[in-house]
Amino acid sequence: MPDSYLRQSRSIELSTKYAIETAITTNWTNVTVVKTFLSAYDKTLPVVCVRLIDTNVDRLEVGATTLDYEYLFNIDIFATSDGQRLDLADFLVDFLKNSWVYYTWTHKAGDNSILEKAAAGRIAVREYISNNRVDFGDVEVSNPDRFRHTIGIRVRKSI
After folding, report:
1. Considering its fold, how many domains does the chain have in total?
2. For residue 3, what pLDDT is reported?
């Protein structure tokens, strides 16, 4: 049975989460990185949630059949304090400016629980959409939403 390759959108999501998780693990202690928003509420703070929320597809040029994909990510920070929220946000923006490795991901033949990766390009931020504290107005919120921050980025894989 051959390996089962994941499509580009899933590989972009996994590569981005992997890059952020690796950078955070290398530079921070006790910060958990997750892929789904709801799982952030099940973890001990601080938590960083990396989510692919939209894919934009356009033709690379007029008359071409080559498609240009752009991906919109939300990176949500659930911090323990305002200072930690700001520090994590600055760290992530600084990390993301340099691009990161795009991997193609596969399920190992015969075992769907094992993912393997192979480098196949780079991912770069095309646009920073947002970088702000999540403001709940006059509503009193408790953890994990009390010190929440969101970073929105549009990225593209190298062609």
Report:
1. 1
2. 57
